[in-house]
Amino acid sequence: MPDTSLDPENWGALRAAAHDMLDAALAKMQSASEGRVWNPLPDDLKQSLTVDIPREGIGIARTQHAVQALLPYGVGNTHPRFFGWVHGAGTPGGMVADIAAAAMNANLGGRDHGAIYVENQVVEWVRDLFDFPASSSGLVVSGTSMATVVALKVARDVKLAFANQKGGIGAAELVGYTSVQTHNCVARAFDLLGLGTDALRLIAVDENFEMDIAALKSAIAADKAAGKTPFCIVGTAGSVNVGAIDDLDAIADIAKAEDIWFHVDGAFGASLMLSEPMRPRLKGITRADSLAFDFHKWWHVNYAVGFVLIRHGADHLRAFTMTAEYLAGQKRGLAAGGPWPADYGFSWSLAGSIR
Ligand SMILES: Cc1ncc(COP(=O)(O)O)c(C=O)c1O
Question: Ligand 1 pocket, 84 CB below 6 A?
Answer without folding.
Answer: no
